[in-house]
Specification:
By secondary structure, this protein is of the alpha/beta class. The protein has a single domain, classed as Metallo-beta-lactamase, Chain A (4-Layer Sandwich). It is 15% helix and 30% strand. It is built from 5 helices and 15 strands. An 8-stranded mixed β-sheet has the order 7-8-9-10-11-12-15-13. A 7-stranded mixed β-sheet has the order 1-14-2-3-4-5-6, with no helix packed on it. It is globular, with a radius of gyration of 17 Å.
């Protein structure tokens, strides 16, 4: 089983000017699958596939953006995970594992399908914080809890959110959930070095986009998947904050496959169109 590494890298942006005209068309792109700009051929390391592609190889992981904060993760051993599960798991078989957070009802469900074997809640229950560390097939799943802020009162709830980390195929894939604060050394030590990170970029319900950029620069993941952006305007504002340390790619499909051997040498932001066009709060 892989161990998340404490290594660091830099990011840079590519072709923001060329892509700017495409941002307003993101909902249409999600529906049509049209390619905004042909960057994939020039930027190896991420393989863009259709939802009906064959299962990933043993050293690969397939990631599909369902919408909002939900991703479908499929491993080479046939394990399927859905993040921030709300009762909908996207196309395909019932997932083996679902993770949930409870900042809003669009990040969890009180009525998960009873046939799902592993339902992992990311918030404090009973006397202590959520603590998950389990192996399912070829993936180790663990969590690091963070605090969340009440939208009504502004007060923080201790351990109300979990960053879920999936260690599989010699990669560490992290989902930040509904992250409400920056990450100090105590968090970074528990998280380790992520290869892929799913990051909320709304700038309001979670935290400011400038603060989230600070988080990304601390995490140094080589593949960044924006989520929780509601609309193309919000996404555009986030992308405008990227400096020359970031590569940028607008995916023509909702689904990509990644492997440790082909991760980009320079970390890259990849925007996946939502499968259902779901941009709810």
């Amino acid at each position: 089983m892989t161990v998340c590494r404490n290594a660091f890298a830099r990011l840079r942006i590519l072709a923001l000017t060329a892509l700017a005209s495409c941002l307003g068309a993101l909902p249409a792109l999600a529906a049509s699958g049209s390619r905004c700009v042909a960057l994939a051929e020039a930027m190896p390391g991420v393989h863009y596939v259709s939802l009906d592609a064959a299962a990933p190889a043993r050293d690969q992981v397939r990631i599909t953006f369902i919408g909002h904060a939900s991703f479908r993760i499929e491993t080479g051993a046939g394990i399927t995970i859905v993040t921030d599960y709300t009762g909908y798991a996207g196309r395909g078989p019932l997932p083996d594992v679902v993770t949930m957070n409870h900042a809003h009802s669009t990040h969890y469900t009180d009525y998960p399908d009873p046939n799902i074997k592993h339902v992992l809640r990311g918030w404090r229950t009973g006397s202590g914080p959520a603590a998950h560390n389990l192996t399912v097939g070829d993936v180790l799943i663990r969590n690091v809890t963070t605090d969340i802020r009440s939208w009504e009162t502004g007060q923080f709830e201790k351990d109300g959110n979990s960053i879920f980390i999936f260690e599989v195929a010699d990669m560490c894939i992290g989902h930040l959930g509904h992250l409400h604060h920056t990450l100090g050394p105590e968090y970074l030590g528990l998280i380790g070095q992520l290869d892929v990170v799913m990051v909320p970029v709304d700038g309001s319900y979670t935290m400011g986009q400038g603060q989230m950029m600070e988080v990304l620069k601390l995490l140094k993941a080589r593949l960044v998947l924006p989520m929780h952006y509601f609309n193309s305007g919000t996404l555009s504002r986030f992308l405008s904050r990227l400096d020359d340390g970031f590569d940028l790619d607008m995916s023509p499909t909702q689904t990509i496959t990644v492997s440790a051997a082909t991760l980009p040498s320079k970390p890259r932001v990849v925007v996946l169109p939502a499968f259902e066009g779901a941009l709810q709060e």
